[in-house]
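In response to reviewer comment 3 from the previous cycle, which asked for concrete evidence that the modeling workflow produces usable outputs, we include below a single protein chain processed end to end. The sequence was submitted unchanged, and the resulting structure tokens are shown without manual editing.
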Amino acid sequence: MAHDSGQLTPASLPVPVAPPTGLRALVVEDEVALATVVGTYLERAGFEVALVHDGLDSVARARQVDPDVVVLDLGLPRLDGIEVCRQLRTFSDAYVVMLTARADEIDTLVGLSVGADDYMTKPFSPRELIARIQAMLRRPRPSTGGGNAHSADLSPRRTFGPLTIDPAGREVWVDGSSVSLTRTEFDILAALSEYPNVVFTRTRLIAAVWGPSWVGDEHLVDVHIGHLRRKLGDDATRGIFVRTVRGVGYRMGAGR
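The workflow returned the following structure tokens.
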């Protein structure tokens, strides 16, 4: 491994130990040494960590652990990361960071299409991984139904033709039918709909959704926009709900 992941042992990692956060992380990686290093960084960042080295076992462990974040390798034995992510999305809304040893864009696109929130290509810096995870976890969590009238008043529903967005409850409907979005897809839609007359550049959307400290390929935005449009029954040509402003970025459509 290059970067600091390959030259440090878990016992010698120069990372300050943070107090427990109450957050749980599941690391699914068949390279035992790498999984151990990533797990140690997460533990020192205050996470309760579970390690799994097999794709098939990881799904059952995720049900037991109920993680807030999953660090998921693409190339796993018995069940690859794509299928693991697909199965996770049937019962978990954990943030998923996909790891891949291949920089091939197709792998990235396929991984994100099943609900991964971010990706990193090996070799990578564990410090950068932790920074990305912490930035994601600073984003709003889905409502658990314990909200009150005041929070609903502060975040009224937004309507764009047949599209209705409930920021407080983090729910979306099209023509009265509920639309299931990943956290990242919802956060992008919420950012765009909060300022419907503003054109968001990729950089601005990255700052709004992933955080200003996020470092990576900004075309990640385009991938999530594509999935969001597909789920809303929209496309780039029509731009009913999400319009492309050529050469600039994206903005909300009027819904018709």
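The chain has nine helices and eleven strands. We consider this sufficient to address the reviewer's concern, and the full set will be provided in the supplementary archive.
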